[in-house]
């Protein structure tokens, strides 16, 4: 039976692979796009996808979304990163990462909760190893991801009686465009073969989405070999 999923970050990396896999098996995918132009690009790249438009940099924009009446999952795979020391990062760098990586997922989840409850669906937050430990130069990004972990933990308890399951996935460094950007910020050469394949993380998320009704996966950590 076809299921319906709402995805952020479907345009690249883990989110793109996951969208392709879900569409390929006949599921319905609703992809969030930041603009009408981006929505058209997603529709061209992911035949069969449905798009809705809201800019995660402005979390209040998700309030006007028209979503399906039932959602089997919401997968939060979008994110931004801007490295720098606490002494260097300005307020805008902090604010942008917190808005996109934390406040927007909270706002979108709130908007989707009626549909998730209707389907007893699953919320997946694609977190990061930075959501488990913070290192020098990663303060703002790690703070947003630590907050995302707190959001997931609170939501899990709040929605347990409604049948909505909540999973945090903590991938280590994964060969995505974001990882290439991180290497550039770090001043390091980028070798995608050194890191986890996005296909590997997408397969793990599919396992969470396909889990039987008798169990839940609260947290899933994936590390490079």
Task: Please explain how this structure is put together.
The chain has about 220 residues and is of the alpha/beta class. Helices cover about 40% and strands about 15% of the residues. It is built from six helices and seven strands. The protein has helices at about 15-25, 35-45, 90-120, 140-160, 175-185, 200-210; strands spanning about 5-10, 30-35, 50-55, 75, 120-125, 165-170, 220. Strands 3-2-1-4-5-6-7 form a seven-stranded parallel β-sheet, sandwiched between helices. Strand 2, helix 2 and strand 3 form a beta-alpha-beta unit. Helix 1 crosses helix 6 (about 200-210). The radius of gyration is 17 Å and the shape is globular.
Task: Summarize the structure in short.
42% of the residues lie in helices and 16% in strands. With 225 residues, the protein is an alpha/beta fold. The termini are far apart.
Query: Could you give the order of the helices and strands?
Result: EHEHEEHEHEHHE
Rg: 17 Å
Please estimate the helix content.
40-55%
Low-confidence stretches: none
Beta-strand content = 15-25%
**What's the overall geometry?**
globular
| Number of DSSP strand runs | 7
Assembly form of the protein: single chain
Spatial separation of the terminal alpha carbons: 36 Å
Largest sheet report? 7 strands, parallel
Number of helices in the DSSP assignment:
6
Average per-residue pLDDT, rounded, comes to 96
Find the structural class using helix and strand composition: alpha/beta
Give the neighbour order of strands across the main sheet.
3-2-1-4-5-6-7
